[in-house]
Amino acid sequence: MTAVGGLAGVGKTELAVQAARTALRRGWFSGGVLFADLFGYDNDRRRDPGQVLEGMLGALGVPGEHIPAHAQDRSRLFRSVLAEFAARGRRILVVADNANTVHQAELLLPTDGSNAAIITSRHTLAMLNARLLDLNVLDPDAEYEDAFHRSAADTGLASENQAI
How many CA atoms lie within 13 Å of 99's alpha carbon, on the beta-carbon side? Predict the structure, then answer.
């Protein structure tokens, strides 16, 4: 799991999206990417983890009538579904963008050790126990590649036999 932190507008979302696209292109997540903007810094549009989980479970093929009402139960089901995808060789990358608090992101994170997550936030969200990439203003030619490669290596996105 990687948390990308930094000031507003520094390029956190762009880095997460480009990292996800690169990981997909390299075949690291054959199950795909689930992306959710949590709008953590927009009081009018901030998304509750339970609401996000409902959408992600639907995207994974869980019928609405099988989605539990409470966020904790949704999170347990979500993690079970992710683990099942991984067991079938279809790892999934979860991208939680603009998390304001640990609470807003933690229920969305895979815990099975096979799937992965990238969280972006203006805060470090240290309680998530994630590898932190703290961004300054990105130099488009140099820092993206360096940050991506460090993130991929530290979160196990690259297989042991595949050079990054």
Answer: 31
Output DSSP code: residue 121.
Answer: E
Higher pLDDT, 36 or 4: 36
Tokens of 154: 């530290």
Residue 142, pLDDT score: 60
8 A C-beta contact, residue 112 and residue 1? no
The sign of the CA dihedral 24, 62, 105, 9 is positive
Q: What is the DSSP letter of 109?
A: S
pLDDT band at 8 (very low <50, low <70, confident <90, very high): confident
Under a CB-based contact definition with an 8 Å cutoff, are residues 13 and 38 in contact?
no
Q: What number of CA atoms fall less than 13 Å from residue 143's CA on the CB side?
A: 13
